[in-house]
Design goal:
The complex is a heterotrimer of chains A (160), B (503) and C (344).
Chain A lengths: L1 E3 H24 L5 E2 L2 E2 L3 H23 L3 H4 L1 E4 H24 L1 H16 L4 H22 L8 H6 L2
Antiparallel strand pairs in A: 1-4, 2-3
Helix pairs in contact in A: 1-2, 4-5, 5-6
Chain B lengths: L1 H13 L2 H19 L5 H8 L8 H26 L8 H12 L3 H35 L3 H15 L7 H16 L1 E2 L6 E2 L13 H18 L14 H10 L4 H16 L4 H15 L11 H17 L1 H7 L5 H12 L6 H6 L1 H31 L5 H20 L2 H19 L4 H25 L10 H14 L1 H15 L5
Antiparallel strand pairs in B: 1-2
Chain C lengths: L1 H29 L13 E5 L6 H15 L7 E5 L6 H8 L7 E5 L2 H9 L8 E10 L2 E5 L7 H10 L5 E5 L4 H13 L4 E5 L2 H9 L5 E2 L3 H9 L3 E6 L34 E8 L4 H16 L1 H10 L8 H22 L6
The chains are: A mainly alpha (160), B mainly alpha (503), C alpha/beta (344).
Chain lengths: 160, 503, 344
């Protein structure tokens, strides 16, 4: 059981259609013809958007008409999809935390979470690796390379 | 002969303990940068550039060029072992590299990739050594029409009337163009497609797209199999290395062809990524095993790697002699040159002889050292596969996030990377080809600018593309390549229709 | 571990600092009309609104280098490139950080040209201008093989054949095109303007003969000039450049005639100025103004100025505001006449 391939195809096709329309929408005010002997800024984008919209309709039609056994197959089973989400959702959470607490804190938490879930390590090892690796990265980027990475309240409190 | 003397003098400059140590350090850093999916050549070199400000220019550029070198070599490692390109120029290496690894032939693939890189880079450096002034003058002949013709040629060589679903290929290409157009339009000074989001004003950097599509996307895809990497064991024993080397001469045509393509793309600013695609595309069209490309052909690994490295190396020539960077990384190096007060130009070769020839000499040494180092450190990288997945997976994601952030110092890009990851997941599963997307993204903006500049100059006259032998021949070649399968089909039909039908 | 040790020494220095601060502020209470001199307390972000390796970036890194070498600031400066949208991204960032005293920005003429030509909701008055550090000169260049001996001859040729001669410039509706427009308006001629991405590319195009002329800054063409591949016709300034050292075999920067001398009434100097966000205190702004003044005294700065043939003008305070107002007015006028202004 899972998401059928046809559903996935249609969903993506719709997404592409929307993108195509959005591109057309933005290009019109830029001018879509030629001026001054050369294409205006909107000339190529509007055609790109148009092709996208048309092609996505074509793909959608193809998907709907496709009765071959391959198309009825699963795009992905719920079981496998859950595994994918098991990585994707934490990654999204990681990025959100990064915006609030900076990259070092969020990365340490991220590694720690993964290690904890795998149930293969004790807390001491988790702490050492997650915090330790981030300290190395911190030293490398903030102090050696002078490349500022996003920081949060912890670092501000510490004087960075 | 003159150049050989200068070259030997250059070696004299380079062969100091300090410099050799810098070279080693540079190569190792470069390999690291190349392997890590987040840090591509451009932002890796950009991060390391300030480290060199305290060094004398000659030492600094030696170290930077070795970093550049190492990155070119290293990018192939994760491409082959994990299907995650460490660099945009290694995307094409995944096409046949990863299948080879899946068949247990990772050692062969890696050896082929590195050796190909070595050959390509060597030819590139030879070109710089002996033909610099000629090449520089040749590069001057390129105006907007010629540039556009080159980009057209790259597209046509890669996009054939191939096997992939045509509609999906078109969608991929168009998406790439759309993204390339986002941001500031050079030709009109207007801002396109930002939809009110200031973060989109700089457009979408192809590095972010590659990190997301191929890095995060691949991880998501792999997740379906459960929390483990499908990464294949890579046993790279000397036996495997020599066996592969013994078979390489068979592909001499591919080696030469890809080197020429690479050098060409480096000089006429196309870039290493575009060169790798072009090398792959042409090899696929013209090789005996072309049909089997994508299933694990050693030639399919050689072609893009040779081209990418030849291009990356020869891109330094227009950068030094004319101040035109042939690739994103060369652009960063150019910035470095200016900051050290060295002006690229014909006088650089005359007034700063030891600098230029020291650099060129270091390229030879760096190439050899790089090959040796990278071959011997493969077991090290393969050992990464043995690190527990729960540690390595988040670390790769973290590195991707750092890489994405450092391109433009923007959290937005990190979010964008995630979005690309989702897109990569869906596209890979639904058979939307990603390569045309990357190619359009890389070249789209430049191609559009070149076209519009040409039209401005020619007042809308399209025949300018046939107006001189250079642009005309490139355009013709492009069209021939585009319609090649069709032409071959017609040719075959004509031949068989004359044969007596065998009943 | 380095991090841990800096942490503990930080707490010690924190205590020391607190004690010292207490002593200082109590001393300050007894002096009338004194203000505690403000100093930055965290790293300073230096926003660059130009591309990596470009003019703005180079100057920012020079300033960063001098500040760190001579220890002119207790906190390091970190250069951050935000050149999206021609620099618009950096502008909006500074506009959106009122009160942030740890952020400065370098802006060139894009501070007017971008908002005027693209409707970007930004104006220099949304910032606190600190100083103009230097002014860029513009020179009219042609290929060395061209038959024109001076600017007059060239412009006569251009005037006689409108829309034929190709002028290359960086970006569209930016300073290069503004200078070209000014040149056209002053001589009644019309070029075909071809925008390119950057000055380096333009200089090779001129050498290769793909364009007829350009208006690059001196530093963008110096290598080709010395190699004898391009020649300068005139400089867009009231007076000739003050540099007398020979650059090529027989000419120095100072030997280039002004366009005025050739009968072309056009001059343009591009500012390189440092700004910071609005709503900062006078002390905070003064810190940077003093810092920048100190940078200018150093030999590295002088070398940079002479290498790039910049006009070493320093403007702050009321002079600066007056300059910005007039400069903006000029741009509005030229761009308006040339139809570069964005339609509202």
């Amino acid at each position: 059981m899972g998401i059928s391939r046809r559903t996935a195809e249609l969903a993506v096709a719709i997404g592409i259609f929307i993108i195509g329309i959005a591109i057309i929408g933005d290009s019109i005010h830029l001018g879509i013809g030629w001026s001054n002997n050369s294409p205006e800024p909107g000339y190529f984008p509007v055609r790109v958007g148009g092709i996208l919209a048309l092609a996505s309709i074509g793909i959608a039609i193809q998907a709907l008409l496709d009765k071959s056994p391959a198309s009825l197959q699963e795009f992905v089973s719920w079981q496998r999809f859950r595994l994918v989400l098991a990585v994707f959702v934490p990654t999204v959470a990681y990025v959100v935390v990064m915006m609030l607490a900076g990259i070092y804190v969020s990365s340490a938490l991220f590694i720690a979470a993964f290690m904890a879930v795998s149930r293969k390590f004790n807390w001491f090892v988790i702490l050492t690796i997650s915090v330790g690796s981030m300290l190395v990265v911190f030293w490398l980027f903030e102090i050696e390379f002078l490349v500022p990475l996003p920081k949060g309240p912890l670092e501000t409190w510490l004087g960075y | 002969m003159d150049q050989v003397v200068s070259l030997l003098q250059g070696f004299g400059v380079v062969l100091s303990v300090y410099h050799l140590w810098l070279m080693l350090l540079g190569i190792m850093l470069g390999i690291l940068v190349g392997v890590l999916p987040g840090l591509g050549g451009p932002n890796g070199v950009a991060i390391l550039l300030p480290l060199t400000f305290t060094m004398p220019p000659t030492s600094a550029i030696i170290m930077l060029s070795c970093i550049y070198w190492g990155a070119l070599f290293g990018g192939a490692i994760t491409s082959i072992l994990f299907n995650i390109p460490g660099e945009p120029s290694s995307v094409a290496t995944t096409f046949d590299g990863y299948p080879l690894a899946q068949q247990g032939r990772a050692g062969e693939a890696l050896t082929a990739a590195f050796s190909g890189s070595f050959v390509g880079a060597l030819l590139g450096v030879l070109l710089i050594t002996f033909m610099a002034p000629l090449v520089a003058r040749f590069a001057l002949k390129f105006g907007p029409p010629e540039f556009f013709a080159v980009y057209l040629l790259t597209f046509c060589s890669f996009i054939g009337m191939g096997r992939e679903a045509p509609l999906k290929s078109i969608v991929a290409m168009m998406l790439g163009f759309g993204m390339a157009a986002m941001g500031m339009d050079t030709m009109s000074g207007q801002i396109r497609m930002t939809y009110g989001l200031p973060q989109l004003m700089q457009g979408i950097d192809f590095l972010i797209a590659v990190i997301g599509l191929f890095g995060i996307g691949e991880i998501l895809l792999t997740m379906e199999e459960g929390l483990a990497f499908k990464g294949k064991a890579a046993n790279i024993s000397p036996k495997v290395v020599f066996q592969t080397w013994a078979r390489l001469p068979r592909y001499w045509l591919t080696l030469i062809r890809s080197s020429i393509i690479g050098c060409w793309m480096g000089i006429t600013p196309g870039g290493a990524t575009a060169a790798s695609f072009m090398g792959y595309g042409i090899a696929k069209k013209f090789s005996r095993n072309g049909d089997k490309f994508g299933t694990g052909q050693v030639e399919g690994v050689l072609a893009p790697e040779v081209a990418a490295h030849a291009s990356g190396t020869s891109a330094l020539l227009p950068m030094l002699a004319l101040g035109i960077p042939g690739s994103a990384t060369a652009a960063v190096l150019l910035g470095g040159l200016m900051i050290w007060g060295l002006e690229p130009g014909p006088l650089l070769f005359i007034e700063h002889k030891e600098f230029v020839w020291g650099l060129i000499a270091s390229m030879y040494l760096g190439n050899v050292a790089g090959l040796i180092i990278v071959l011997s450190t493969v077991p090290l990288f393969a050992a990464i596969l043995r690190v527990p997945f729960s540690i390595i997976a988040p670390m790769i994601i973290i590195l991707c996030a750092i890489g994405a952030y450092t391109v433009h110092n923007s959290m937005f890009d990190v979010g964008l990377m995630l979005l690309f990851g989702v897109v990569g997941y869906f596209f890979k599963k639904l058979d939307y080809p990603l390569a045309p997307l990357v190619l359009s993204l890389v070249l789209g903006d430049k191609a559009e600018d070149a076209f519009r500049q040409t039209m401005l100059a020619s007042k809308g006259d399209v025949t300018i593309f046939a107006s001189n032998w250079l642009v005309g021949s490139i355009t013709l070649l492009a069209l021939v390549l585009l319609f090649w399968p069709l032409l071959v089909g017609i040719w075959n039909k004509l031949r068989t229709s004359r044969q007596v039908p065998a009943t | 571990m380095p991090f841990k040790s800096s942490c503990s020494s930080k707490s010690v220095s924190l205590l020391k600092g607190a004690a010292f601060g207490l002593a200082l502020s109590s001393a300050a209470l007894f002096t009338s009309a004194s203000h505690a001199d403000w100093k930055p307390t965290k790293p300073i972000t230096f926003v660059v609104t130009g591309g990596p390796g470009g003019g703005a970036d180079q100057m920012a890194r020079l300033i960063q280098g001098v500040v760190s070498k001579y220890k002119l600031s207790p906190q390091p400066m970190i250069v951050v490139i935000q050149n999206g949208g021609g620099g618009g991204q950096g502008f909006m960032d500074v506009k959106g950080s009122p009160g942030d005293a740890h952020k400065i920005m370098i802006g060139l003429s894009n501070i007017y040209t971008v908002p005027l030509s693209t409707n970007l909701p930004f104006n220099w008055r949304d910032t606190t201008p600190l100083a103009v550090m230097a002014l860029d000169e513009f020179v009219l260049w042609v290929n060395a093989k061209a038959p024109y001996k001076n600017a007059q001859e060239y412009m006569q040729a251009v005037k006689s054949k409108p829309d034929t001669f190709k002028m290359g410039g960086a970006g569209s509706k930016r300073e290069d095109e503004v200078v070209t427009a000014m040149l056209e308006q002053a001589t009644g001629s019309k070029f075909t303007f071809i925008p390119y991405k950057g000055g380096g590319e333009i200089s090779t195009q001129l050498v290769g003969g793909h364009i007829d002329s350009d208006v690059n800054n001196p530093i963008e063409h110096v290598a080709h000039w010395r190699a004898g591949e391009v020649k300068p016709l005139c400089v867009f300034d009231k007076q000739r450049m003050p540099f007398k050292t020979k650059v090529t075999g027989d000419m120095s920067w100072g030997d280039i005639p002004t366009c005025r001398e050739s009968g072309i009434n056009a001059e343009y100097l591009m500012l390189r100025a440092i700004f910071m966000p609005k709503d900062v205190s006078k002390d905070e702004a003064d810190f940077y103004v003093k810092l920048l003044a100190k940078v200018r005294e150093k030999p590295e700065w002088k070398e940079f100025i002479s290498k790039g043939a910049y006009k070493d003008d320093f403007m702050t305070g009321a002079d600066l505001t007056k300059f910005l107002e007039e400069d903006e007015k000029r741009h509005v006028e030229i761009m308006g006449k040339a139809n570069f202004l964005a339609k509202k």
